[in-house]
Amino acid sequence: MEIYSTEEQQVEALKRFWKEYGVSIIGGAALGLGGLFGWNAWQDHQQSQQEAASAAFAELMQNTSSTEQMQAAAETFRTEHNEAGYNALVDLMQARVAVDSGDLSKAETLLKDAVAKLDSSTRPLAQLRLARVQAAQEELAAAQATLAAIDNEAFAALRDELKGDLLKQQGDLEGARAAYESAMQAGGAMASPALQLKLDGLAQAS
């Protein structure tokens, strides 16, 4: 690196540097500031969009005047706020309404959509509901496959209890007993007081 021994040399070097690179520096700074302001504006826009989606979802949750109105409001929400997280919650809401109205096929489709959108911490909620809907349609193999895909151990007790229900429904009492016992070991008795009754019932049936 060249070392300047006098102030005059340093001043002349600065002049030459500015003449060669000054425009580029100013342009770069302008682009940098523009990018910063653009980023901040984008962040503000995202924040406002999220707040609007949150308010709209809260309103949707309160829209229980009728099934038809709730379904229409849900579709409007999807159009105006196309966000995967909220859409998954709307799937769950509409699936519940579909079950209440007896449309299990629609509920199954909605729950599969929710499963695909949710992360590993919340996906098991949709998977458990999906397995119940599949079982109600006598799709027992599909329900068992759905339960087998739940790998979040926080839901192990609920998963194994429902697995026991399915096996009992198929007449596999030994398999059901093993599943219920597994649910008990995972703390299922605390979440489901009926679990012990199910085990006792199997003992009486043996």
**Tertiary shape:** elongated
Count the strands? 0
State the end-to-end distance.
91 Å
Instruction: Report the C-alpha radius of gyration, rounded.
Output: 30 Å
CATH architecture field of the largest domain: Alpha Horseshoe
What proportion of the residues form beta strands (DSSP E)? under 5%
Helix/strand/pairing class, anyone?
mainly alpha
Number of helices: 10
Main beta sheet, described? none
Helix content: over 70%
Number of domains: 2
Helix and strand topology:
Layout: H1 7-62, H2 67-80, H3 84-100, H4 104-117, H5 123-136, H6 140-148, H7 156-169, H8 173-185, H9 188-191, H10 194-205
Helix pairs in contact: 1-2, 2-3, 3-4, 4-5, 5-6, 5-7, 6-7, 7-8, 8-10
Would you mind describing this structure in some detail?
With 206 residues, the protein is mostly helical. It folds into two domains: 53-151, Serine Threonine Protein Phosphatase 5, Tetratricopeptide repeat (Alpha Horseshoe); 153-206. 81% of the residues lie in helices and 0% in strands. It is built from ten helices and no strands. The chain starts with 6 loop residues before the first helix and ends with a helix. This is Ancillary SecYEG translocon subunit. It holds the Pfam family TPR_21.
